[in-house]
Write a structure and sequence with these properties.
The complex is a heterodimer of chains A (about 240) and B (about 110).
Chain A (H helix, E strand, L loop, with lengths): L3 H40 L4 H10 L3 H12 L4 H12 L2 H9 L10 H6 L3 H12 L5 H25 L13 H12 L4 H20 L4 H21 L1
Chain B lengths: L3 H25 L6 H24 E2 L4 E2 L4 H16 L2 H18 L1
Antiparallel strand pairs in B: 1-2
Classes of the chains: A mainly alpha (about 240), B mainly alpha (about 110).
Chain lengths: ~240, ~110
Amino acid sequence: MSTMADKDGANTRSEIMQGLIAAWPICLGYIPLGLAFGVIAQKAGLYPLEIGFMSLLVFAGSSQFIAVSMLASGAGAASIIFATFTVNLRHFLMSSSLALHLGSVRKRILPLFAYGVTDESFAVNLSKFKSGDWDIRRGFVVNHAANITWIASTVIGGYCGQFIPAKAFGIDYALIAMFIGLLVFQFKGRKYVMTAGIAGAMAIVLSLILPGNLYVVLASIMAATLGVLLTKRVK
Amino acid sequence: MFENEYIIIVLGMSLVTYLPRCIPLLALARRNLPNWLVEGLDLTPVAILSALLLPLLVTTGEPRHIELFRPELLVAIPTLLFALKTKSLSGTVILGMLLFWGASKVM
Protein backbone atom coordinates (compact mmCIF):
# COMPACT_ATOMS: atom_id res chain seq x y z
CA MET A 1 0.00 0.00 0.00
CA SER A 2 1.36 3.37 -0.96
CA THR A 3 0.97 5.98 1.75
CA MET A 4 1.25 9.74 1.57
CA ALA A 5 4.58 9.53 3.36
CA ASP A 6 5.97 7.19 0.69
CA LYS A 7 4.89 9.57 -2.03
CA ASP A 8 6.46 12.52 -0.24
CA GLY A 9 9.65 10.53 0.21
CA ALA A 10 9.83 9.69 -3.48
CA ASN A 11 9.14 13.33 -4.40
CA THR A 12 11.85 14.57 -2.07
CA ARG A 13 14.30 12.06 -3.49
CA SER A 14 13.58 13.17 -7.05
CA GLU A 15 13.90 16.83 -6.04
CA ILE A 16 17.27 16.13 -4.47
CA MET A 17 18.38 14.25 -7.59
CA GLN A 18 17.30 17.11 -9.88
CA GLY A 19 19.07 19.61 -7.67
CA LEU A 20 22.25 17.55 -7.65
CA ILE A 21 22.17 17.09 -11.43
CA ALA A 22 21.92 20.87 -11.80
CA ALA A 23 24.67 21.44 -9.21
CA TRP A 24 27.38 19.07 -10.43
CA PRO A 25 29.27 21.54 -12.67
CA ILE A 26 29.47 23.91 -9.70
CA CYS A 27 30.78 21.22 -7.39
CA LEU A 28 33.30 20.07 -9.98
CA GLY A 29 34.57 23.62 -10.33
CA TYR A 30 34.70 24.26 -6.59
CA ILE A 31 36.96 21.29 -5.87
CA PRO A 32 40.17 22.68 -7.43
CA LEU A 33 39.35 26.21 -6.25
CA GLY A 34 38.65 25.01 -2.72
CA LEU A 35 41.81 22.90 -2.60
CA ALA A 36 43.86 25.84 -3.87
CA PHE A 37 42.31 28.10 -1.25
CA GLY A 38 43.04 25.58 1.48
CA VAL A 39 46.70 25.35 0.47
CA ILE A 40 47.11 29.13 0.38
CA ALA A 41 45.28 29.60 3.68
CA GLN A 42 47.40 26.94 5.35
CA LYS A 43 50.56 28.64 4.06
CA ALA A 44 49.22 31.89 5.53
CA GLY A 45 49.16 30.18 8.92
CA LEU A 46 45.54 29.03 9.27
CA TYR A 47 44.60 25.64 10.68
CA PRO A 48 42.14 23.43 8.76
CA LEU A 49 39.43 24.11 11.35
CA GLU A 50 39.92 27.86 10.97
CA ILE A 51 39.73 27.46 7.20
CA GLY A 52 36.47 25.54 7.53
CA PHE A 53 35.12 28.21 9.89
CA MET A 54 35.70 30.91 7.27
CA SER A 55 34.27 28.80 4.42
CA LEU A 56 31.17 28.01 6.47
CA LEU A 57 30.45 31.56 7.58
CA VAL A 58 31.56 33.59 4.56
CA PHE A 59 31.09 31.14 1.66
CA ALA A 60 32.40 33.45 -1.06
CA GLY A 61 35.49 32.24 -2.88
CA SER A 62 37.22 35.29 -4.29
CA SER A 63 36.79 37.34 -1.12
CA GLN A 64 38.26 34.48 0.93
CA PHE A 65 41.35 34.40 -1.29
CA ILE A 66 41.74 38.16 -0.85
CA ALA A 67 41.18 38.00 2.92
CA VAL A 68 43.81 35.31 3.37
CA SER A 69 46.40 37.17 1.33
CA MET A 70 45.66 40.30 3.37
CA LEU A 71 45.98 38.30 6.61
CA ALA A 72 49.34 36.99 5.46
CA SER A 73 50.55 40.52 4.77
CA GLY A 74 49.42 41.65 8.22
CA ALA A 75 46.38 43.75 7.30
CA GLY A 76 43.97 44.76 10.05
CA ALA A 77 40.41 43.52 10.61
CA ALA A 78 38.70 46.68 9.34
CA SER A 79 40.47 46.73 5.98
CA ILE A 80 39.89 43.00 5.40
CA ILE A 81 36.19 43.35 6.20
CA PHE A 82 35.87 46.40 3.95
CA ALA A 83 37.61 44.62 1.05
CA THR A 84 35.22 41.68 1.53
CA PHE A 85 32.25 44.02 1.39
CA THR A 86 33.30 45.59 -1.93
CA VAL A 87 34.16 42.23 -3.49
CA ASN A 88 30.85 40.64 -2.48
CA LEU A 89 28.54 43.57 -3.17
CA ARG A 90 27.68 42.03 -6.56
CA HIS A 91 25.49 39.44 -4.81
CA PHE A 92 23.08 42.30 -4.17
CA LEU A 93 22.20 42.31 -7.87
CA MET A 94 21.92 38.53 -8.03
CA SER A 95 19.53 38.35 -5.07
CA SER A 96 17.48 41.14 -6.64
CA SER A 97 17.05 39.11 -9.83
CA LEU A 98 16.30 35.92 -7.91
CA ALA A 99 13.63 37.75 -5.89
CA LEU A 100 11.49 38.04 -9.05
CA HIS A 101 11.12 34.25 -9.02
CA LEU A 102 10.56 33.78 -5.30
CA GLY A 103 7.23 35.58 -5.01
CA SER A 104 5.33 32.54 -3.75
CA VAL A 105 7.88 31.56 -1.11
CA ARG A 106 7.24 32.03 2.60
CA LYS A 107 9.25 34.98 3.83
CA ARG A 108 11.00 33.28 6.71
CA ILE A 109 12.67 30.78 4.35
CA LEU A 110 14.33 33.54 2.34
CA PRO A 111 17.11 34.37 4.86
CA LEU A 112 18.32 30.76 4.69
CA PHE A 113 18.21 30.80 0.89
CA ALA A 114 20.18 34.06 0.88
CA TYR A 115 23.11 32.32 2.61
CA GLY A 116 23.68 30.17 -0.48
CA VAL A 117 23.59 32.86 -3.17
CA THR A 118 26.91 32.77 -5.03
CA ASP A 119 27.86 33.63 -8.62
CA GLU A 120 27.54 29.99 -9.53
CA SER A 121 24.39 28.97 -7.64
CA PHE A 122 22.73 32.18 -8.84
CA ALA A 123 23.56 31.40 -12.47
CA VAL A 124 22.27 27.83 -12.26
CA ASN A 125 19.16 28.54 -10.19
CA LEU A 126 18.14 31.60 -12.16
CA SER A 127 18.26 29.87 -15.54
CA LYS A 128 16.32 26.97 -14.02
CA PHE A 129 13.70 29.33 -12.58
CA LYS A 130 13.36 31.06 -15.95
CA SER A 131 12.80 27.81 -17.80
CA GLY A 132 10.00 27.00 -15.34
CA ASP A 133 9.83 23.63 -13.55
CA TRP A 134 12.01 24.78 -10.64
CA ASP A 135 11.27 25.74 -7.07
CA ILE A 136 13.06 26.85 -3.94
CA ARG A 137 13.44 23.28 -2.64
CA ARG A 138 15.50 22.28 -5.67
CA GLY A 139 17.25 25.65 -5.37
CA PHE A 140 18.24 24.77 -1.80
CA VAL A 141 19.74 21.50 -3.00
CA VAL A 142 21.89 23.41 -5.51
CA ASN A 143 22.96 25.95 -2.88
CA HIS A 144 23.88 23.42 -0.24
CA ALA A 145 25.54 20.90 -2.55
CA ALA A 146 27.81 23.76 -3.63
CA ASN A 147 28.24 24.89 -0.02
CA ILE A 148 29.23 21.44 1.29
CA THR A 149 31.64 20.92 -1.61
CA TRP A 150 33.27 24.29 -0.95
CA ILE A 151 33.68 23.76 2.80
CA ALA A 152 34.99 20.21 2.39
CA SER A 153 37.46 20.99 -0.38
CA THR A 154 38.89 24.05 1.41
CA VAL A 155 39.44 22.03 4.60
CA ILE A 156 40.98 19.12 2.66
CA GLY A 157 43.21 21.63 0.87
CA GLY A 158 44.35 22.85 4.29
CA TYR A 159 45.43 19.32 5.22
CA CYS A 160 46.93 17.95 2.04
CA GLY A 161 46.26 20.24 -0.92
CA GLN A 162 49.87 20.52 -1.97
CA PHE A 163 49.88 16.84 -2.95
CA ILE A 164 46.98 17.14 -5.39
CA PRO A 165 47.61 18.25 -8.99
CA ALA A 166 45.27 21.19 -9.48
CA LYS A 167 45.14 21.22 -13.27
CA ALA A 168 44.30 17.58 -14.05
CA PHE A 169 41.60 17.00 -16.69
CA GLY A 170 41.13 20.73 -17.28
CA ILE A 171 39.11 20.86 -14.06
CA ASP A 172 40.21 24.47 -13.56
CA TYR A 173 38.13 25.38 -16.64
CA ALA A 174 34.88 23.86 -15.29
CA LEU A 175 33.40 27.10 -13.95
CA ILE A 176 34.33 29.15 -17.02
CA ALA A 177 32.73 26.52 -19.27
CA MET A 178 29.64 26.54 -17.05
CA PHE A 179 29.37 30.33 -17.31
CA ILE A 180 29.71 30.07 -21.11
CA GLY A 181 26.87 27.56 -21.26
CA LEU A 182 24.59 29.48 -18.90
CA LEU A 183 25.26 32.76 -20.73
CA VAL A 184 24.41 31.24 -24.10
CA PHE A 185 21.20 29.70 -22.76
CA GLN A 186 20.04 33.21 -21.76
CA PHE A 187 20.17 34.36 -25.39
CA LYS A 188 16.39 34.23 -25.97
CA GLY A 189 15.99 37.37 -28.02
CA ARG A 190 17.97 40.28 -29.37
CA LYS A 191 17.75 42.40 -26.23
CA TYR A 192 19.51 39.71 -24.19
CA VAL A 193 22.34 39.31 -26.69
CA MET A 194 22.70 43.08 -26.96
CA THR A 195 22.76 43.53 -23.16
CA ALA A 196 25.35 40.76 -22.84
CA GLY A 197 27.54 42.44 -25.45
CA ILE A 198 27.36 45.81 -23.72
CA ALA A 199 28.00 44.27 -20.29
CA GLY A 200 30.97 42.24 -21.50
CA ALA A 201 32.63 45.16 -23.28
CA MET A 202 32.09 47.49 -20.31
CA ALA A 203 33.35 44.86 -17.87
CA ILE A 204 36.56 44.38 -19.84
CA VAL A 205 37.26 48.11 -19.97
CA LEU A 206 36.32 48.73 -16.32
CA SER A 207 38.32 45.70 -15.12
CA LEU A 208 41.44 47.36 -16.52
CA ILE A 209 40.73 50.63 -14.68
CA LEU A 210 39.13 49.67 -11.36
CA PRO A 211 40.75 47.62 -8.61
CA GLY A 212 39.07 44.44 -7.36
CA ASN A 213 35.89 43.27 -9.04
CA LEU A 214 33.61 46.27 -8.69
CA TYR A 215 33.51 46.22 -12.47
CA VAL A 216 30.97 43.36 -12.29
CA VAL A 217 28.42 45.49 -10.46
CA LEU A 218 28.99 48.65 -12.48
CA ALA A 219 29.02 46.97 -15.89
CA SER A 220 25.90 44.91 -15.08
CA ILE A 221 23.84 47.85 -13.84
CA MET A 222 24.83 50.07 -16.76
CA ALA A 223 24.23 47.35 -19.33
CA ALA A 224 20.83 46.37 -17.91
CA THR A 225 19.79 50.04 -17.80
CA LEU A 226 20.95 50.64 -21.37
CA GLY A 227 19.20 47.43 -22.39
CA VAL A 228 15.89 48.67 -20.98
CA LEU A 229 16.29 52.10 -22.60
CA LEU A 230 17.29 50.70 -25.99
CA THR A 231 14.43 48.20 -26.14
CA LYS A 232 12.03 51.07 -25.34
CA ARG A 233 13.53 53.04 -28.23
CA VAL A 234 13.15 50.14 -30.68
CA LYS A 235 9.47 49.67 -29.77
CA MET B 1 44.18 28.54 17.08
CA PHE B 2 41.04 30.71 16.82
CA GLU B 3 42.51 33.95 18.14
CA ASN B 4 39.99 36.65 18.91
CA GLU B 5 41.03 38.82 16.01
CA TYR B 6 40.54 35.98 13.51
CA ILE B 7 37.05 35.31 14.86
CA ILE B 8 36.18 39.01 14.59
CA ILE B 9 37.48 39.15 11.01
CA VAL B 10 35.47 36.11 9.93
CA LEU B 11 32.31 37.30 11.68
CA GLY B 12 32.67 40.74 10.06
CA MET B 13 33.30 39.20 6.65
CA SER B 14 30.26 36.96 7.01
CA LEU B 15 28.02 39.88 7.98
CA VAL B 16 29.04 42.16 5.08
CA THR B 17 28.73 39.21 2.68
CA TYR B 18 25.39 38.01 4.01
CA LEU B 19 23.50 41.31 4.11
CA PRO B 20 23.77 42.10 0.36
CA ARG B 21 22.64 38.52 -0.30
CA CYS B 22 19.63 38.74 1.99
CA ILE B 23 18.24 42.29 1.91
CA PRO B 24 17.09 42.24 -1.76
CA LEU B 25 15.34 38.89 -1.28
CA LEU B 26 13.36 40.21 1.69
CA ALA B 27 12.73 43.62 0.12
CA LEU B 28 11.75 42.57 -3.39
CA ALA B 29 10.08 39.14 -3.22
CA ARG B 30 6.26 39.12 -2.99
CA ARG B 31 5.97 42.73 -4.02
CA ASN B 32 4.57 44.41 -7.10
CA LEU B 33 7.55 46.10 -8.67
CA PRO B 34 7.37 48.91 -11.23
CA ASN B 35 7.67 47.81 -14.84
CA TRP B 36 11.05 49.37 -15.54
CA LEU B 37 12.55 47.57 -12.55
CA VAL B 38 11.16 44.20 -13.62
CA GLU B 39 12.54 44.74 -17.13
CA GLY B 40 15.91 45.79 -15.73
CA LEU B 41 16.07 42.79 -13.39
CA ASP B 42 15.09 40.56 -16.31
CA LEU B 43 18.17 41.78 -18.22
CA THR B 44 20.45 41.73 -15.17
CA PRO B 45 21.34 37.99 -15.18
CA VAL B 46 22.63 37.98 -18.74
CA ALA B 47 24.54 41.19 -17.96
CA ILE B 48 26.11 39.71 -14.80
CA LEU B 49 27.07 36.47 -16.54
CA SER B 50 28.69 38.35 -19.39
CA ALA B 51 30.45 40.79 -17.03
CA LEU B 52 31.81 37.91 -14.96
CA LEU B 53 32.90 35.85 -17.93
CA LEU B 54 34.47 38.12 -20.54
CA PRO B 55 37.22 39.65 -18.37
CA LEU B 56 38.21 36.09 -17.35
CA LEU B 57 38.70 35.25 -21.02
CA VAL B 58 40.64 38.25 -22.29
CA THR B 59 42.45 39.77 -19.31
CA THR B 60 45.13 38.42 -17.01
CA GLY B 61 47.81 39.37 -14.53
CA GLU B 62 48.23 41.90 -11.78
CA PRO B 63 47.70 44.73 -12.67
CA ARG B 64 45.18 43.40 -15.16
CA HIS B 65 45.93 43.79 -18.85
CA ILE B 66 44.41 42.47 -22.07
CA GLU B 67 45.96 39.34 -23.54
CA LEU B 68 44.02 37.69 -26.34
CA PHE B 69 46.14 34.68 -27.25
CA ARG B 70 45.34 32.57 -24.21
CA PRO B 71 43.89 29.05 -23.99
CA GLU B 72 41.00 30.50 -21.91
CA LEU B 73 39.74 32.50 -24.92
CA LEU B 74 40.64 30.03 -27.67
CA VAL B 75 38.85 27.17 -25.91
CA ALA B 76 35.85 29.42 -25.20
CA ILE B 77 35.00 29.75 -28.91
CA PRO B 78 34.31 26.07 -29.70
CA THR B 79 32.76 25.67 -26.24
CA LEU B 80 30.34 28.53 -26.96
CA LEU B 81 29.42 27.14 -30.38
CA PHE B 82 28.83 23.73 -28.82
CA ALA B 83 26.57 25.30 -26.16
CA LEU B 84 24.57 27.18 -28.83
CA LYS B 85 24.16 24.05 -30.91
CA THR B 86 23.39 21.44 -28.26
CA LYS B 87 21.85 23.44 -25.37
CA SER B 88 23.52 20.89 -23.07
CA LEU B 89 25.20 22.32 -19.97
CA SER B 90 26.90 19.10 -18.91
CA GLY B 91 28.20 18.52 -22.44
CA THR B 92 29.46 22.10 -22.59
CA VAL B 93 31.30 21.78 -19.28
CA ILE B 94 32.92 18.46 -20.22
CA LEU B 95 33.94 19.66 -23.69
CA GLY B 96 35.37 22.89 -22.29
CA MET B 97 37.41 21.02 -19.69
CA LEU B 98 38.80 18.51 -22.18
CA LEU B 99 39.69 21.19 -24.73
CA PHE B 100 41.34 23.30 -22.04
CA TRP B 101 43.25 20.30 -20.76
CA GLY B 102 44.48 19.59 -24.28
CA ALA B 103 45.25 23.24 -25.00
CA SER B 104 47.28 23.71 -21.84
CA LYS B 105 49.43 20.71 -22.83
CA VAL B 106 50.05 22.17 -26.30
CA MET B 107 50.37 25.88 -25.60
